[in-house]
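Predict structure. Chain length: 532.
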Amino acid sequence: MTAIRSTLDNTGEEYAAAAAAMADKLAEVQLEADKAVGGGGPKYVERHRKRGKLLARERIELLIDEDSPFLELCTFAAWGSDFPVGGNVVAGIGVIEGVECMIVANDPTSRGGASNPWTVKKIFRINEICEQNRLPMISLVESAGADLPTQKEVFVPGGRLFRDLTRASAAGIPTVALVFGNSTAGGAYIPGMSDHVVMIKEQSKVFLGGPPLVKMATGEDSDDESLGGAEMHARKSGLADYLAQDEQDAIRLGRAIVKRLNWQKKGPAPRADYADPLYPEEDLLGIVPDDLKIPFDPREVIARLVDGSDFDEFKGLYGSSLVTGWAELHGYPVGILANAQGVLFSEEAQKAAQFIQLANRANTPLLFLHNTTGYMVGKEYEQGGIIKHGAMMINAVSNSKVPHLSLLMGASYGAGHYGMCGRAYDPRFLFAWPSAKSAVMGPAQLAGVISIVSRASAESRGLPFDEEADAGMRALVEAQIEAESLPLFMSGRVYDDGIIDPRDTRTVLGLCLSAIATAPIEGAANFGVFRM
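Prediction complete.
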């Protein structure tokens, strides 16, 4: 055993201050999560219940195996926009009859479950996860279709949703649609393009155009049942493969379909006899300081995440502001890259590139723990080759084929965000702690750069420089960048897959590693040219 020896003082003032700040951030995040869970609000939830229908999360709870976890994803999509938090859809990974599946459920209490621009963006991300990790897709459908007032932002890109369904089917990834209510217009193509379809008698309605549209288009008078009812689709059109008597029966049929898929994982099985970390997960609340300029040792985080706190550090004496090494998490092998002092120098970049190559040689997934202000700048470092060394690290990340997981713990600024496998580099999953911040650079630095450029511009034109206006500009820019770097802002734009409680990190990462193992895990055979 090479277990990490923790030196964390969880009784000290610094720890207490950091834990208190984290508790405040968690409370703020929970308030926004409650909005997503609340759907359209008490009025519409009550109306939905009076119709004898289950809520979206209740349907999911009945669908997944009893007492099994559900890893909800992109909960905060649309936060900070004019649309409801969550994007009118609930999505995540759950286990059905022992099979890990992606489940997507329209929330009909929120604007009828209509698809707005953020619904579309969220489901794009969900479909990407399905494709990368070979997860069966289960759609719980009840949607009014596109949000018509914003159709200009939904219609053109939204067609990709249906393309993704058919491509999943072509790739051998099962797609199942359980229709719980109206599935209108574009929404009709979800069951239309799914491999298996369940509809509910006298409840499911699937049509390209409802009675009002048909009347306007053709002059024909029709009713819901004859136009798109479940029995019609089961007996005449053939769109329904199974006719359920009620919602519970539809869920039973959905579980039976998954059971008969004969679905097999293609990745490695985890070690069965792994040990829990030596230190309590509760400690994770106070490791990251409220002021991200204060460094912290990521080994304290690793010690509370990996099996037995056992970590074989790689190149421990070289490039010390980046910690790299090997461990197991819930029995799955992982390579870990964790920022220690924030800045990435040439040594850290070269160390990372070699480590990523080794992980690909060993077919080992990589976990990136972010707390970086980016690559070092300055004459000495430019002359020493920081550009080519940073490029080497980004090259390795870009061309690595083993699955990547990213966790934003603290700062994730500049090209360091890229080198540590930010969203643009396609990590299989990316989560953030409430303490995280991400932007092109820190607020004060960005405002300062703008100020310096403005001052130089004024001097070059022989104009006086307005110091008062400059101070006001800096304050406004700092406030803007601070607001735009916070995790709720980033999560609202689906730049991560969710904000998680630090104490849940080990569980969340374990669920992700298990989902990843549904697909084969194979490292890269080739990388781009490393500029040496």
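Summary: The chain has two domains: 38-259, 281-436+499-516.
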